[in-house]
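User: Show me a protein chain along with its predicted structure.
Assistant: Here is one chain, sequence first, then structure tokens.
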Amino acid sequence: MLRITCVAAIALAATGCANLAHADAQAVACAADSPVVPNEFSGIDIPAAQIDAAVGQVDALAQKLMTSSGVPGMAVAVVRDGKTVFAKGYGVRSLDTGVPVDADTVFQLASMSKSIGATVVAHQVGAGVVAWDTRMQKLMPAFKLSEWYATNNVTLGDLYAHRSGLPEHIADFLEDLGFNRAQMLDKLRYAPLAPFRAHYAYTNFGMTAAAAAVAAASGSDWATLSQQALYAPLGMNSTSSRYADFLARANRAVGHVKDGSRFVVTPSQRDPDAQSPAGGVSSSINDVARWMNMVLANGCANGTQLIAGAALLSAISPQVVAAAPPNPRSRASFYGYGFNVGESGAGRVVLTHSGAFALGAATAYTLIPSANIGIVTLTNALPTGAPETLNAEFADLVQFGRITLPWDELYAGAFKGILAPTGEHACAPKLDGGFDCPAPPADAVPAQPLARYAGSYASDFYGPAEILVAGSALKLRIGPQNMTFDLSHWSGDEFLMTPPGESAMPGSRSTVAFADGTMTIEYMNAGDEKGLGVFRSARRPQP
């Protein structure tokens, strides 16, 4: 008699896993009878003792990383064959209190939320509520993109794979200006599009739109759906997709940023509710470990098939090329539905995702399904590459028995560029804190009388803006909350402002330039968003 296992259910869309004796055995049992196919082959075997040794080195590696990175707090968990085999906290929840981190300390996960949210969607796909190829127009008729064909054909999967054509990080600046989720999703219709389904660009609010549509189809809101479909069944009792729940946790980590070379408590904790499906999950390593075991067991948890294997397989399979190989020797990088999908040097599929808030969160997980093992590292500091370093070192030890590359140097270098201040006239960070900011040129051209710049301006994407004269200076007022920014004169018709919020690194400065009845705000008008940051005056400047 053919026994249908949980892995076999990938092909057959079966839901049978209920005959397993207990949760501890479920991941092994689910994988044990899966048929071996040629493209599972790896030329490098992994002896069980090598995995034992890798797990045995995690504590020492974590301790070393705490010292070298200086992050205030960190928590690490390792899962293997359906069990949590390591879980430990390091450092403190907050430098202000000195209370230690433990395995139940709740951290903000940032963009790790994308993978967790994708499994919520996969649950609803398996339940028949939606499909990955369900069109957004069917679920959310008000949702529009700037091109007719894309509007009428974009699917949940397109948005979860970042292949809709929307610009990278589109609408993040709107969030910083106080727009709510509904307002931001509505404004996506004004964004220029790259070729539909032929271009990868990481977009928080494209994915958020898809998740909101799934929640609506389920008759719920996203946070409630996530709780009912995933967190409660898995026993993730410290996990939530609501910021208020995170703030209510007694055992939670506080974000930290850098002042020069030292970490300090962030002046304002990151509230990610507007993009909750893409970045708003908070959780502990013990809870994330339960989720990792479920993913490695192809949707099985606690003796039942929580998520249909076929629905989950789509999420963890390549759906778009995220980074083309730079040369013929290189491997490409792929993105599934909310998961980074890659191939290691050992020829093994590796699932990953990082998360980062500039206001004090850096997280990452790594899963190696063929070895039935995974690691998650959560920290309460702005991103410096620490979680990715530990996970890469562990993955090397599992697969090769040694650390193959200086991952700490590689990731530190990569994140240094990400954290650099932006803008044509950006400031340079000083090691002892503060910034060195370029002064206006010695031959700066005087500004026109300030009243000539004053008045109302508008952009389809960013909405109305007002330039006000306040004494001998200009101010910019913008956004639904009437945020006000000081403008300092640079030269001629060019002024400077400090961009707000999470999207601009400390030391960033943006030009605000006036010309021919327009105002162009540099940081809103860069890259693929060219044109969105151009505001037109309601009247031409007075002569």
